[in-house]
Amino acid sequence: MFILTQIACVTVSDRAFRLVLYGGVCLQEAKGKISEQLMQRLKLKPEKIKQLGAGLRSIAAQDEPVGKTLSRMEIAEGLELEKVTAPIGVLLIIFEARPDALPQIAALAIRSGNGLLLKGGKEAARSNACLHKIITDCIAKEQPEVCFEPLQAVVHVM
What we know:
By secondary structure, the protein is an alpha/beta fold.
């Protein structure tokens, strides 16, 4: 899938420096406010970005999951019943200080033809914004009608 390959290439090439920079800013802002375990998850090192690119390329190389016929049976003469894979619809994913999760989740949603609402941890806001920009720029080149928006806040509704 070309869009995912493009996202992987952009993520690990010309914008990787910006990701590391924003990741550093996020770390400084979160220092003393979150646990050491969350701080480790928040770090975006060049090696982690390379692994991220490899993971995105792997997802892009997978077989098309949508529209596969899983089973087919004739239930009456001239009437067949098919079980075909289809997107779920829209996914809502809330994740904590783990900016590398954003492109992985987005790649899986794109690959499976699903809509996506994401809410990342506030500790990774800058990194997530940069990753969001990379993904939306790549999508806009190929499919400008596709919308991918991050959630900025969760509002409690009663």
